[in-house]
Amino acid sequence: MSLALSTFASAKEASVALNEGGARYLGGGTLVVRAVNEGDIAITGYVRTTDPALTKIDVSGQRARIGASATMASIARCPELETISRAAKSVGGPAIRNMATVGGNLFAPAPYGDFAVALLALGATVHCADADLSIDDFLADRDNSSGRGIVTAVSFDIPAADSFRFLKVSRVKPKGVSVLSIATVIDTDAQGVVANARIGLGCMADRPIRARAAEAALKGQPLTKDRIAQAVAVIGEGTDPITDPIASGWYRGEVLPVHFSRLLLS
Amino acid sequence: MARIPVQFRLNGDDRAEFIESGTTLFHALRDTMGDMSPKGGCHQGSCGACSVIIDGELRLSCLTLAETCEGAEIETIAGLGQDRVLHPVQRAILDGFATQCGFCTPGMVMAAKALLDRTPNPSREDVVEAISGNICRCTGYEPIIAAVLAAARSNSQNAG
User: Fold this and answer.
1) B3-79: what fold?
2) Which CATH architecture has domain A52-157?
3) Chain B residues close to A104, C-beta within 8 Å
4) Residues of B with Cβ-Cβ distance to A88 under 8 angstroms
5) Whether the predicted pLDDT of A33 surpasses 90
6) Which of A83, A208, B82, B126 has the highest CB neighbour count under 10 A?
């Protein structure tokens, strides 16, 4: 059975339409149409907007603003976003990347949503039709759109090339579903000592989460094998890794420190 | 449910049909327009069997709503080849025994065509990446990779 698609000219109109029962916003279709195909009867219709602003990518100085309907492929192709392109390229195969949107990735349940892990590390701002939120606040309550409306864009400061790290671990090469993903933005001073660190983890909960204990442990330390030991030891603190056909929660928790250590030393 | 009009170009032909709102492109092609070439594998975006090219980009017809393709240029494997002459990718897959059960082949060919349209001389890594969203449970992928590279060589020889 197919569900009716309602198309609106603006994000605000689409937001109002979403308040009516079980309608879901249609971005690239890789989450919502998939759910309908799978038989999710909670979804009663599709809503979308054709506002062209939602597909734009604007880079001004070191600040990037990516429309919610921009695809992973368009981000990966954008030369100004080369620093973070590996996170966009890690999402699915070519067809999925041509469809999957930034806005959709913010709602992707684990083990999906690898780009959102990067956005979390980047400290992005999530722009919605009626409010702007930090990505931490947005992710904490992402299923509740009341008061904020649909997501229209994300923005963030583009990090220096050597301060952004991203790793997606999967069993199937070259592309597979995540065992886990890690994104870090680590600023160091002239002596190589960590001044600030933001760490995002994927598959360590039902949605991307920060590794705050490891962030604190890294501060003031150089990125050497001995001095990152404390951060590696606490990287799993506060996590609740998911169990699915890709890996058990136990396995994910066991390999997280290994991959985190390698990422820091890479 | 009310039926709505959709118009797009399918393999070079203008098509206009009435469909139910919310119908996937996959079902519109197969059930309404008579193009049976996209195959329905998982309907979850995982297998790539339903891959088509929309406005030059590889996409999954099972996750694309037909009405979002209004005015688009859609290519399926049914439109490849002219005057009973196979497309170079089809020819190379046939010559290289790169198909067994054949279920993944339409999606594989469209993924390969999308690659060669943008990257006429791909590396092996480019090919592996290009078909990374398409699952084949028969061939082990190697014959398919070799066929796509052979098609690229064939194209460049013909162009030269």
Assistant:
1) Ubiquitin-like (UB roll) (3.10.20)
2) 2-Layer Sandwich (3.30)
3) none
4) none
5) yes
6) A208
